[in-house]
Protein backbone atom coordinates (compact mmCIF):
# COMPACT_ATOMS: atom_id res chain seq x y z
CA UNK A 1 0.00 0.00 0.00
CA UNK A 2 1.35 3.41 -0.98
CA UNK A 3 1.50 6.30 1.47
CA UNK A 4 -0.38 9.56 1.04
CA UNK A 5 1.42 12.00 -1.25
CA UNK A 6 0.04 15.46 -0.59
CA UNK A 7 2.17 17.06 -3.30
CA UNK A 8 0.85 14.66 -5.92
CA UNK A 9 -2.74 15.26 -4.83
CA UNK A 10 -2.26 19.04 -5.04
CA UNK A 11 -0.68 18.69 -8.49
CA UNK A 12 -3.54 16.56 -9.78
CA UNK A 13 -6.13 18.92 -8.31
CA UNK A 14 -4.41 21.92 -9.92
CA UNK A 15 -4.23 20.39 -13.39
CA UNK A 16 -7.68 18.84 -13.12
CA UNK A 17 -9.14 22.29 -12.40
CA UNK A 18 -7.68 23.57 -15.66
CA UNK A 19 -8.77 20.56 -17.72
CA UNK A 20 -12.27 20.82 -16.26
CA UNK A 21 -12.48 24.52 -17.15
CA UNK A 22 -14.46 24.13 -20.38
CA UNK A 23 -14.20 27.77 -21.43
CA UNK A 24 -10.43 27.69 -21.06
CA UNK A 25 -9.82 24.33 -22.73
CA UNK A 26 -12.28 24.78 -25.59
CA UNK A 27 -10.92 28.25 -26.41
CA UNK A 28 -7.39 26.93 -26.75
CA UNK A 29 -8.63 23.96 -28.77
CA UNK A 30 -10.36 26.24 -31.28
CA UNK A 31 -7.30 28.50 -31.50
CA UNK A 32 -4.98 25.54 -32.11
CA UNK A 33 -7.22 23.94 -34.72
CA UNK A 34 -7.44 27.29 -36.54
CA UNK A 35 -3.69 27.93 -36.40
CA UNK A 36 -1.75 24.66 -36.67
CA UNK A 37 -1.44 23.33 -40.24
CA UNK A 38 -0.61 19.86 -41.47
CA UNK A 39 3.11 19.17 -41.08
CA UNK A 40 3.79 22.06 -38.68
CA UNK A 41 6.41 21.82 -35.95
CA UNK A 42 5.01 23.10 -32.66
CA UNK A 43 6.59 24.10 -29.34
CA UNK A 44 4.36 23.96 -26.25
CA UNK A 45 5.89 25.75 -23.24
CA UNK A 46 4.53 24.93 -19.80
CA UNK A 47 2.61 22.00 -21.22
CA UNK A 48 1.38 20.50 -17.94
CA UNK A 49 -0.65 17.39 -18.70
CA UNK A 50 0.09 17.86 -22.39
CA UNK A 51 -3.47 18.60 -23.42
CA UNK A 52 -2.51 21.42 -25.79
CA UNK A 53 0.24 19.28 -27.30
CA UNK A 54 -2.36 16.58 -27.95
CA UNK A 55 -4.63 19.15 -29.59
CA UNK A 56 -1.75 20.28 -31.82
CA UNK A 57 -1.10 16.73 -33.04
CA UNK A 58 -4.79 16.21 -33.72
CA UNK A 59 -4.74 19.51 -35.69
CA UNK A 60 -2.02 18.15 -37.98
CA UNK A 61 1.35 18.91 -36.35
CA UNK A 62 4.08 16.51 -37.43
CA UNK A 63 6.08 17.08 -34.25
CA UNK A 64 5.37 18.78 -30.95
CA UNK A 65 8.08 19.66 -28.45
CA UNK A 66 6.23 19.61 -25.14
CA UNK A 67 8.25 21.44 -22.47
CA UNK A 68 7.37 21.12 -18.78
CA UNK A 69 9.58 21.55 -15.72
CA UNK A 70 7.25 19.96 -13.15
CA UNK A 71 6.88 16.21 -12.36
CA UNK A 72 3.47 16.18 -14.07
CA UNK A 73 5.40 15.59 -17.31
CA UNK A 74 5.51 11.89 -16.40
CA UNK A 75 1.71 11.80 -16.41
CA UNK A 76 1.67 13.74 -19.69
CA UNK A 77 3.81 11.07 -21.34
CA UNK A 78 1.41 8.37 -20.16
CA UNK A 79 -1.63 10.31 -21.38
CA UNK A 80 -0.05 10.79 -24.82
CA UNK A 81 0.69 7.07 -25.01
CA UNK A 82 -2.86 6.18 -23.94
CA UNK A 83 -4.23 8.31 -26.76
CA UNK A 84 -1.88 6.87 -29.39
CA UNK A 85 -0.13 10.20 -29.96
CA UNK A 86 3.19 9.65 -28.17
CA UNK A 87 5.13 9.12 -31.42
CA UNK A 88 4.43 12.72 -32.48
CA UNK A 89 5.31 14.39 -29.16
CA UNK A 90 8.80 14.89 -27.72
CA UNK A 91 8.49 15.58 -24.00
CA UNK A 92 11.33 17.71 -22.61
CA UNK A 93 11.63 18.10 -18.85
CA UNK A 94 13.02 21.43 -17.65
CA UNK A 95 12.64 25.16 -18.04
CA UNK A 96 12.38 26.33 -21.65
CA UNK A 97 15.20 28.77 -20.87
CA UNK A 98 17.60 25.89 -20.25
CA UNK A 99 16.82 23.46 -23.06
CA UNK A 100 17.32 23.26 -26.81
CA UNK A 101 14.85 22.36 -29.55
CA UNK A 102 16.46 20.56 -32.53
CA UNK A 103 14.44 22.24 -35.29
CA UNK A 104 12.74 25.62 -35.80
CA UNK A 105 9.05 25.68 -35.00
CA UNK A 106 6.11 27.02 -37.00
CA UNK A 107 3.89 27.58 -33.98
CA UNK A 108 4.45 28.44 -30.31
CA UNK A 109 1.75 27.55 -27.80
CA UNK A 110 2.05 28.68 -24.21
CA UNK A 111 -0.73 28.68 -21.67
CA UNK A 112 1.42 30.45 -19.10
CA UNK A 113 -1.30 33.07 -18.66
CA UNK A 114 -1.64 33.94 -14.99
CA UNK A 115 -4.47 35.52 -13.05
CA UNK A 116 -3.29 38.99 -14.08
CA UNK A 117 -2.11 37.73 -17.46
CA UNK A 118 1.61 38.24 -16.88
CA UNK A 119 2.34 36.82 -13.42
CA UNK A 120 3.47 33.41 -14.71
CA UNK A 121 6.31 34.95 -16.72
CA UNK A 122 4.84 34.62 -20.21
CA UNK A 123 6.91 37.58 -21.46
CA UNK A 124 10.16 35.81 -20.56
CA UNK A 125 9.15 32.48 -22.12
CA UNK A 126 7.94 34.02 -25.38
CA UNK A 127 10.93 36.35 -25.79
CA UNK A 128 13.37 33.46 -25.39
CA UNK A 129 11.36 31.16 -27.67
CA UNK A 130 11.23 33.78 -30.43
CA UNK A 131 14.99 34.13 -30.29
CA UNK A 132 15.93 30.44 -30.16
CA UNK A 133 13.03 28.17 -31.15
CA UNK A 134 10.82 29.81 -33.76
CA UNK A 135 10.85 30.54 -37.46
CA UNK A 136 10.68 34.29 -38.22
CA UNK A 137 7.03 34.06 -39.31
CA UNK A 138 5.94 31.64 -36.60
CA UNK A 139 2.45 31.96 -35.13
CA UNK A 140 2.09 32.46 -31.38
CA UNK A 141 -0.86 31.38 -29.25
CA UNK A 142 -1.88 33.66 -27.57
CA UNK A 143 -1.54 36.44 -30.15
CA UNK A 144 -2.37 39.29 -27.78
CA UNK A 145 -2.44 39.63 -24.00
CA UNK A 146 -3.57 42.64 -21.96
CA UNK A 147 -3.78 43.38 -18.26
CA UNK A 148 -6.99 45.18 -17.32
CA UNK A 149 -7.18 47.12 -14.06
CA UNK A 150 -9.61 49.05 -11.92
CA UNK A 151 -9.65 50.53 -8.44
CA UNK A 152 -11.66 48.19 -6.23
CA UNK A 153 -13.54 48.34 -2.96
CA UNK A 154 -13.05 44.99 -1.21
CA UNK A 155 -13.39 45.37 2.57
CA UNK A 156 -13.62 41.61 3.10
CA UNK A 157 -10.33 40.97 1.27
CA UNK A 158 -8.62 43.92 2.95
CA UNK A 159 -9.58 43.04 6.52
CA UNK A 160 -7.04 40.18 6.93
CA UNK A 161 -4.32 42.41 5.46
CA UNK A 162 -5.14 45.36 7.71
CA UNK A 163 -5.18 43.11 10.78
CA UNK A 164 -1.38 42.91 10.82
CA UNK A 165 -1.16 46.70 11.28
CA UNK A 166 -2.75 46.30 14.70
CA UNK A 167 -0.97 45.06 17.86
CA UNK A 168 -1.33 41.37 18.62
CA UNK A 169 -1.54 40.82 22.37
CA UNK A 170 0.36 44.13 22.80
CA UNK A 171 3.10 42.97 20.37
CA UNK A 172 4.06 45.01 17.30
CA UNK A 173 3.85 42.99 14.08
CA UNK A 174 4.17 45.87 11.63
CA UNK A 175 7.18 44.29 9.81
CA UNK A 176 4.84 41.48 8.80
CA UNK A 177 2.23 44.07 7.85
CA UNK A 178 4.71 45.65 5.44
CA UNK A 179 5.23 42.32 3.71
CA UNK A 180 1.51 41.56 3.42
CA UNK A 181 0.70 45.02 2.06
CA UNK A 182 3.40 44.61 -0.58
CA UNK A 183 2.37 41.15 -1.69
CA UNK A 184 0.16 40.48 -4.71
CA UNK A 185 -3.01 38.79 -3.47
CA UNK A 186 -5.45 36.50 -5.28
CA UNK A 187 -9.21 36.89 -4.96
CA UNK A 188 -12.48 36.61 -6.85
CA UNK A 189 -13.75 40.08 -7.66
CA UNK A 190 -17.43 40.85 -8.14
CA UNK A 191 -18.72 43.61 -10.43
CA UNK A 192 -19.90 45.42 -7.31
CA UNK A 193 -16.26 45.90 -6.24
CA UNK A 194 -15.35 47.92 -9.34
CA UNK A 195 -14.90 51.62 -8.45
CA UNK A 196 -13.40 52.97 -11.70
CA UNK A 197 -13.90 51.93 -15.35
CA UNK A 198 -11.89 48.77 -16.17
CA UNK A 199 -9.06 49.86 -18.47
CA UNK A 200 -6.16 48.14 -20.22
CA UNK A 201 -3.14 49.21 -18.18
CA UNK A 202 -0.54 47.42 -20.32
CA UNK A 203 -0.23 44.59 -22.81
CA UNK A 204 1.55 43.15 -25.83
CA UNK A 205 0.86 41.45 -29.15
CA UNK A 206 4.22 39.60 -28.88
CA UNK A 207 5.44 41.06 -32.18
CA UNK A 208 7.99 43.06 -30.18
CA UNK A 209 8.19 41.50 -26.72
CA UNK A 210 8.74 44.16 -24.02
CA UNK A 211 11.31 43.79 -21.26
CA UNK A 212 8.90 45.21 -18.71
CA UNK A 213 5.33 46.44 -18.54
CA UNK A 214 4.08 49.72 -17.17
CA UNK A 215 0.91 51.72 -17.45
CA UNK A 216 -0.89 54.71 -15.95
CA UNK A 217 -4.67 55.09 -15.91
CA UNK A 218 -6.63 58.26 -15.16
CA UNK A 219 -10.41 58.06 -15.04
CA UNK A 220 -13.44 59.12 -13.04
CA UNK A 221 -14.93 57.31 -10.11
CA UNK A 222 -18.01 55.25 -10.97
CA UNK A 223 -19.41 55.73 -7.47
CA UNK A 224 -18.55 56.98 -4.00
CA UNK A 225 -16.37 54.24 -2.54
CA UNK A 226 -13.57 53.43 -0.15
CA UNK A 227 -10.89 51.90 -2.36
CA UNK A 228 -8.65 49.21 -0.88
CA UNK A 229 -6.43 48.56 -3.87
CA UNK A 230 -6.20 47.79 -7.57
CA UNK A 231 -7.90 44.80 -9.14
CA UNK A 232 -6.14 43.26 -12.13
CA UNK A 233 -7.26 40.59 -14.60
CA UNK A 234 -6.53 39.75 -18.23
CA UNK A 235 -8.06 39.70 -21.68
CA UNK A 236 -6.43 37.74 -24.47
CA UNK A 237 -6.82 37.09 -28.17
CA UNK A 238 -5.64 33.50 -28.61
CA UNK A 239 -6.00 33.65 -32.38
CA UNK A 240 -8.12 35.62 -34.81
CA UNK A 241 -11.69 35.74 -33.53
CA UNK A 242 -11.00 33.67 -30.40
CA UNK A 243 -10.74 35.57 -27.13
CA UNK A 244 -10.72 34.67 -23.46
CA UNK A 245 -10.87 36.75 -20.30
CA UNK A 246 -11.31 36.31 -16.56
CA UNK A 247 -13.00 39.69 -16.12
CA UNK A 248 -15.42 39.90 -13.18
CA UNK A 249 -17.62 37.97 -12.81
CA UNK A 250 -15.32 35.33 -14.28
CA UNK A 251 -16.70 32.43 -16.32
CA UNK A 252 -13.29 30.70 -16.36
CA UNK A 253 -13.16 29.13 -12.89
CA UNK A 254 -9.52 28.04 -13.06
CA UNK A 255 -8.38 31.69 -12.97
CA UNK A 256 -8.79 34.14 -10.08
CA UNK A 257 -8.07 37.91 -10.05
CA UNK A 258 -5.11 39.89 -8.82
CA UNK A 259 -5.50 42.32 -5.93
CA UNK A 260 -2.80 44.91 -5.28
CA UNK A 261 -3.53 46.27 -1.78
CA UNK A 262 -2.88 49.82 -0.67
CA UNK A 263 -1.02 50.74 2.51
CA UNK A 264 -4.09 52.77 3.49
CA UNK A 265 -7.57 52.82 1.88
CA UNK A 266 -8.48 55.96 -0.07
CA UNK A 267 -11.84 57.56 -0.81
CA UNK A 268 -13.02 57.90 -4.39
CA UNK A 269 -15.95 60.12 -5.37
CA UNK A 270 -18.33 59.54 -8.25
CA UNK A 271 -17.30 61.66 -11.24
CA UNK A 272 -14.01 62.83 -9.71
CA UNK A 273 -10.71 62.13 -11.46
CA UNK A 274 -8.36 59.56 -9.96
CA UNK A 275 -5.13 58.05 -11.31
CA UNK A 276 -3.18 54.89 -10.64
CA UNK A 277 -0.08 53.19 -11.98
CA UNK A 278 0.85 49.52 -12.29
CA UNK A 279 4.06 47.95 -13.56
CA UNK A 280 5.44 44.42 -13.81
CA UNK A 281 8.80 42.92 -14.63
CA UNK A 282 9.07 40.55 -17.59
CA UNK A 283 9.30 37.61 -15.18
CA UNK A 284 5.96 38.55 -13.62
CA UNK A 285 7.50 38.31 -10.14
CA UNK A 286 8.12 42.02 -9.45
CA UNK A 287 5.16 44.40 -9.25
CA UNK A 288 4.80 48.06 -8.35
CA UNK A 289 1.62 50.04 -7.95
CA UNK A 290 0.42 53.41 -6.72
CA UNK A 291 -2.78 55.42 -6.46
CA UNK A 292 -3.02 59.21 -6.50
CA UNK A 293 -0.22 61.73 -6.79
CA UNK A 294 1.76 64.13 -4.65
CA UNK A 295 1.63 63.86 -0.85
CA UNK A 296 -1.45 61.60 -0.93
CA UNK A 297 0.16 59.01 -3.18
CA UNK A 298 0.10 55.42 -1.94
CA UNK A 299 2.93 53.32 -3.41
CA UNK A 300 3.65 49.61 -3.03
CA UNK A 301 6.36 47.26 -4.28
CA UNK A 302 4.98 43.79 -4.68
CA UNK A 303 6.17 40.23 -4.98
CA UNK A 304 4.17 37.14 -5.81
CA UNK A 305 5.41 34.86 -3.04
CA UNK A 306 6.01 35.67 0.61
CA UNK A 307 9.15 33.50 0.78
CA UNK A 308 10.68 35.61 -1.99
CA UNK A 309 10.02 38.74 0.03
CA UNK A 310 11.60 37.17 3.10
CA UNK A 311 14.71 36.30 1.10
CA UNK A 312 15.04 39.89 -0.04
CA UNK A 313 14.67 41.19 3.53
CA UNK A 314 17.35 38.84 4.92
Q: Tell me the strand percentage band.
A: 25-35%
CATH superfamily of the largest domain: Hnrnp arginine n-methyltransferase1
Number of helical segments with 4 or more residues: 8
What portion of residues is helical?
25-40%
What would the principal axes of the Cα set say about the shape? elongated
The total number of structural domains is: 2
CATH hierarchy class name of the largest domain? Mainly Beta
- By CATH, the topology of the largest domain is Hnrnp arginine n-methyltransferase1
The tally of strands reads 15
Account of the protein in words:
With 314 residues, the protein is α/β, with parallel strands linked by helices. The chain has 2 domains: 106 residues, Rossmann fold (3-Layer(aba) Sandwich), CATH 3.40.50.150; 169 residues, Hnrnp arginine n-methyltransferase1. It is 26% helix and 35% strand. It is built from 8 helices and 15 strands. The strands form 3 sheets. Strands 6, 7, 8, 10, 11 and 12 form a 6-stranded antiparallel beta sheet that branches. It has a 5-stranded parallel beta sheet with strand order 3-2-1-4-5, sandwiched between helices. Helix 2 runs parallel beside helix 3. It is elongated and about 60 Å long. The chain starts with 5 loop residues before the first helix and ends with a helix. The N terminus and C terminus are likely disordered.
